[in-house]
């Protein structure tokens, strides 16, 4: 956590009672991300960045092809939705052999997670807005306007 704070970020540490893992939360460029470690495997960690979706852009079936395509582009990134479907999470899971290796790749992985998440949100919102405009056009056309 010291190397994060050395970069000027304020980090919050939450220790998990069950399993022995921990979550570090920090803000990067206005977004709060979580770095989680697994208590069972000291070499495992994940970085997750949530994006709250507007209500009109929460159709997971419409977003699925976008997310699958982006997962093939950003090979290490996985996308998933929160249980209530309001939030899309861009995440990466990795293993590091040492703390130094973790620190060496940390900021690059955050950049990848952010880039993938931003691309997903941009494409989901664009598709949702286009679909709304088409639906509105069809509705008005059917009404004779």
If you had to describe this structure to a student in words, what would you say it looks like?
The protein is 43% helix and 29% strand. It is of the alpha+beta class. Helix 2 packs antiparallel against helix 3. It is elongated, with a radius of gyration of 19 Å. It starts with a helix and ends with a helix. The model has no long low-confidence stretch (mean pLDDT 85).
Keywords:
43% helix; 29% strand; alpha+beta; 3 helices; 6 strands; elongated; 6-stranded antiparallel beta sheet; 145 residues; Yope Regulator, Chain: A
CATH arch. level architecture: 2-Layer Sandwich
Instruction: Assign a percent range to the helix content.
Output: 40-55%
CATH class: Alpha Beta
What does the main sheet amount to?
A: 6 strands, antiparallel
CATH topology: Yope Regulator, Chain: A
Classify the beta-strand content into a percent band.
25-35%
Brief overview:
With about 140 residues, this protein is an alpha+beta fold.
Topology:
Blueprint: H1 2-6, E1 11-15, E2 22-28, E3 31-37, E4 44-52, H2 60-73, E5 77-81, E6 87-95, H3 99-142
Antiparallel strand pairs: 1-2, 2-3, 3-4, 4-6, 5-6
Helix pairs in contact: 2-3
């Amino acid at each position: 956590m010291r190397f994060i704070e050395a970069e000027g970020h304020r980090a919050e540490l939450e220790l998990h009672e069950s399993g022995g893992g921990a979550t570090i939360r920090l803000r990067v460029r206005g977004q709060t991300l979580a770095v989680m470690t697994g208590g069972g495997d000291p070499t495992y960690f994940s970085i997750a960045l949530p994006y709250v979706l507007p209500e009109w852009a929460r159709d997971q079936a419409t977003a699925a092809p976008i997310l699958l395509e982006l997962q093939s582009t950003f090979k290490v990134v996985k996308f998933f939705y929160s249980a209530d479907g309001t939030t899309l999470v861009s995440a990466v899971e990795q293993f590091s052999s040492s703390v130094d290796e973790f620190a060496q790749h940390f900021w690059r992985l955050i950049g990848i997670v952010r880039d993938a998440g931003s691309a997903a949100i941009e494409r989901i919102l664009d598709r949702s807005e286009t679909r709304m405009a088409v639906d509105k056009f069809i509705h008005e056309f059917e009404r004779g306007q």
